[in-house]
Design goal:
Helix content: 40-55%
Shape: globular
Radius of gyration: 17 Å
Distance between the termini: 31 Å
Largest sheet: 7 strands, mixed
Oligomer: single chain
Number of helices: 12
Structural class: alpha/beta
């Protein structure tokens, strides 16, 4: 289990922000955000279970609840009592499941920010997942990795950054996890739904929903649906950046997230 706490540069008594990645599961996904948040918060990033080449095989019927349990163990180990949570896609689900888990613990989730998440799987996103699963099963990891940029990044960004993207893909292929793990994580994402228990657990937390208008993987209306299902919160819709806007539009996304914290805390 790999995680890192990036200390606040200006206040040793600052609060914590937890950054939770999407399907890829790597802490490195948040590199464009860490420097922006550490002047105000201690920042915890972590690698999710089963996401590296040397990972053990995840158990059968692996769920978002299991992912939240991994993070709860980290929080208890570090004695983090209260925190803000930012999750990308299924990272937002982990935050919602964590809210359930800490209802009976002496922990407090101050806020949850969900970037390009959903309340239940959209038929379009389901077709995208089916295509990715088929690629992995029939053509292998390289086909899967080379195609995933089409789901994550805007066309213009790919055109401009194609050499950098190829380098990132090569690095990912060198550390590609067992295919079984990838398939189990996709299945967990497909099966997850926000329910009334999540709504109840998050009723006292500040909620922020961020969507990118040009997200190909998760239609923008899903963030509105998520807000409606949970019953309160702020919705911010960004014009560009696609699904992985943490990478493609970090300045705009970072300003949007910081503004939320400045207005609510």
């Amino acid at each position: 289990m790999s995680y890192q706490i990036h200390p606040c540069t200006g206040n040793s008594a600052a609060g914590f922000i937890i950054l939770s990645s999407g399907l890829g599961g790597h802490a490195s996904f948040w590199k464009p955000q860490i420097e922006v948040f550490t002047p105000y918060f201690h920042v915890l990033t972590y690698d999710q279970e089963g996401c590296h080449a040397d990972s053990s095989i995840l158990p059968d019927h692996y769920t978002i609840t299991d992912m939240a349990g991994q993070l709860l163990g980290i929080l208890k180990r570090e004695k983090i009592q209260s925190f803000h949570f930012i999750g990308h896609a299924i990272g937002g689900f982990i935050g919602a499941e964590l809210a359930l888990a800490i209802n009976s613990a002496e922990l407090k989730l101050l806020s949850l920010t969900c970037i390009n998440s959903w309340d239940e799987l959209d038929p379009h996103t389901q077709k995208c997942f089916e295509a990715r699963v088929h690629l992995l099963k029939s053509a292998g990891p390289e086909a899967y990795v080379r195609a995933q940029g089409l789901f994550l990044y805007p066309p213009a960004w790919i055109s401009t950054h194609h050499q950098h993207l190829t380098t990132l893909e090569n690095i990912q292929l060198e550390d590609f996890p067992p295919s079984e793990n990838v398939l189990k994580r996709i299945q967990a994402a497909q099966q997850f739904k926000i329910n009334d228990q999540h709504r109840q657990a998050l009723r006292h937390s500040q909620l922020h929903f961020i969507a990118n208008q040009d997200d190909f993987l998760v239609p923008v209306h899903q963030s509105s649906n998520l807000k409606q299902r949970l019953g309160h919160g702020q919705l911010s819709i960004l014009a560009s950046g696609a699904h992985a806007s943490t990478v493609t539009e970090p300045e705009l996304l970072n300003k949007t997230m910081l503004r939320f914290f400045q207005n609510h805390f």
